[in-house]
């Protein structure tokens, strides 16, 4: 199993450009998440999904959009990129909730994004 | 007060020593607690879940103190490979409410 796969690993955007960060998982997890991690800060939840067709905002959703058309894929869309979106982005998945086992997060390897 | 607070370190510890970190949380409704490990420029990986009664996994011991609202991680006989940032993670219920600490950086010195 590949686990959680994110692409691209690195990207430089100009202000105002848009892009999609891809995330796919092969563990049949219902729950998927997008986090961002800024230097010296904890991970912040951007959006999450509890199943195909269901998404919801996390703590820092402004400037981002998501969709979940399949169980496997959870792309993150940046519209009108801004310097404040320079960060490391992590996609993650989990079985669900209700037990410590279910709540274990499996992370992708991350995307380093710079907006200049 | 931050929801989850950790001493950022760095902790520079000689190989073979014992080191302990604490993490305090402010939400008394918190139910699930975890320690994740993050290597430089890598993704976080689950190190241990923290059970109410405390738990041990090899050289690692995790404890929960609900009265004082903190969790701890003890590493015995530290190895060079233990060098990493250790993230404290807390939630009242469900991963959408997970709160990550900023991490404690540990460097094991030969």
Can you summarize this structure?
The complex is a heterodimer of chains A (116) and B (110). Chain A is mainly β. Chain A has no helices and eleven strands.
The succession of helices and strands of chain A, N to C, reads EEEEEEEEEEE
Over the alpha carbons, how many angstroms does the gyration radius of chain A reach? 13 Å
Mean pLDDT of chain A: 92
Tally of individual helices of chain A? 0
Q: What is the mean pLDDT of chain B?
A: 92
Shape of chain A: globular
Q: Please trace the helix and strand order of chain B, writing H or E for each element.
A: EEEEEEEEEEE
- SS-derived structural category of chain B: mainly beta
Radius of gyration of chain B: 13 Å
How does the SSE layout of this entry go?
The complex is a heterodimer of chains A (116) and B (110).
Chain A: E1 4-7, E2 10-13, E3 19-25, E4 31-37, E5 44-51, E6 54-57, E7 64-66, E8 76-78, E9 87-94, E10 106-107, E11 111-115
Parallel strand pairs in A: 2-11
Antiparallel strand pairs in A: 1-3, 3-8, 4-5, 4-9, 5-6, 7-8, 9-10, 9-11
Chain B: E1 4-6, E2 11-14, E3 19-25, E4 32-38, E5 44-50, E6 55-57, E7 60-65, E8 70-75, E9 84-91, E10 99-100, E11 104-109
Parallel strand pairs in B: 2-11
Antiparallel strand pairs in B: 1-3, 3-8, 4-5, 4-9, 6-7, 7-8, 9-10, 9-11
């Amino acid at each position: 199993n590949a686990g959680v796969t994110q692409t691209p690993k690195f990207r430089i955007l100009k202000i105002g450009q848009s892009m999609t960060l891809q995330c796919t998982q092969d563990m049949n997890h219902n729950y998927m998440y997008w986090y961002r991690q800024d230097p010296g800060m904890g991970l912040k939840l951007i959006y999450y999904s509890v199943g195909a067709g269901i998404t919801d905002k996390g703590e820092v959703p402004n400037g981002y959009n998501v969709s979940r058309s399949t169980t496997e894929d959870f792309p993150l869309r940046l519209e009108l990129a801004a310097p404040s979106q320079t960060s490391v982005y992590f996609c993650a998945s989990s079985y669900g909730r209700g037990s410590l086992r279910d709540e274990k997060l499996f992370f992708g390897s991350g995307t380093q994004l710079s907006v200049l | 007060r931050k929801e989850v607070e950790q001493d950022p370190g760095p902790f520079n510890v000689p190989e073979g020593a014992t080191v302990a970190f604490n993490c305090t949380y402010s939400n008394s409704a918190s139910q699930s607690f975890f320690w994740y490990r993050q290597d430089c420029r890598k993704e976080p990986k689950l190190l241990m879940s923290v059970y109410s009664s405390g738990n041990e996994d090899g050289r690692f011991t995790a404890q929960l103190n609900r009265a004082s609202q903190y969790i701890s991680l003890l590493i015995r006989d530290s190895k060079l490979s233990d060098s990493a940032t250790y993230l404290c993670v807390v939630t009242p219920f469900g991963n959408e409410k997970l709160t990550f600490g900023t991490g404690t950086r540990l460097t094991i010195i030969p």
